[in-house]
Amino acid sequence: MNSADFTSDAFIAKMNSYLKSHLSPSRYEHSASAAETCRRLAEEFGFDEKLAFFTGLVHDIAREYSKEELVKWASQDGMPVRDIDLDSPVLLHGRAGAMVLKKEFGIADKEVLDALSAHTTGTSGMKTLAKILFVADYIEPKRKHITPEFLAGLEGLDLDGMVYAVLMGTLNHLASKGKSVAPEALELKKELEHAE
Ligand SMILES: [Fe+2]
Ligand SMILES: [Fe+2]
Q1: How close is the Cα of 186 to the center of ligand 2, in Å?
Q2: What is the Å distance from ligand 1's center to 94 Cα?
Q3: Which ligand sits closest to the CA of 96?
Q4: Mean pLDDT throughout 175-194?
Q5: CATH for 3-195, options being 1.10.3470.10, 1.25.40.10, 3.40.1190.20, 1.10.3210.10
Q6: Residue range 52-58: mean pLDDT, rounded
């Protein structure tokens, strides 16, 4: 399926009903809100708004899978499932979601699949769509943890600047909880710091 098909009103309606019946109400609300925020960021940064909306809508399609389902789906993308992934299997929901989109819904668009795979931790080499989703997932208005000060700090930033702000917000949160950081997140941090 190409992007004109999977971003059509008919397919969006199909995904909406699928997500409503497979996600908790609050997760569905987060997904719909992330879709709107993706669309807004796409408009701001001159990206395909329909593609961004679709990606935001489906990004957590596998978020409520069991550990077994997460490992089963994520392992189909050809990348290893590592010990660090098994320690925090919820982090696999991006990779698992990409494989569900590909195998259950016939979506082969690499930029969409990569955006889903990367959204949980961030990674180096992210394309525009992955960056839009990474930011939107964190700042969509239903998120309780976002302060007006944080949002004000994003104003005027370019997309990489927003990704960096979101990444640092996540890393600071993990540090305050004493939690470990995925190596991909540190690679993204290094990449963004060297790009400045
Ligand atoms: Fe997610
Ligand atoms: Fe999310």
Answers
A1: 20
A2: 6
A3: 1
A4: 94
A5: 1.10.3210.10
A6: 98
C-alpha 64/C-alpha 46 separation (Å) is 32
Q: Quick one: pLDDT at residue 196?
A: 59
Predicted TM-score (pTM) of the model is 0.96
Q: How far is the CA of 133 from the centre of ligand 2 (A)?
A: 9
Ligand nearest to the CA of 116: 1
Q: What percent of the chain has pLDDT over 70?
A: 99
Contacts of 163 by beta carbon, 8 Å cutoff, 6+ apart: 122, 126, 131, 134, 135, 188, 192
Domains of the chain: which residue ranges? Answer: 3-195
How many A from CA of 151 to the centre of ligand 1?
A: 20
pLDDT tens for each residue of 74-125: 999 999 999 989 999 999 999 999 999 999 999 999 999 999 999 999 999 9
- Point out the ligand nearest to the CA of residue 30: 2
Q: What is the helix (H) or strand (E) element at residue 164, kind and residue range?
A: helix 159-176
Using CA atoms, how far apart are residues 116 and 128, in angstroms rounded to an integer? 12
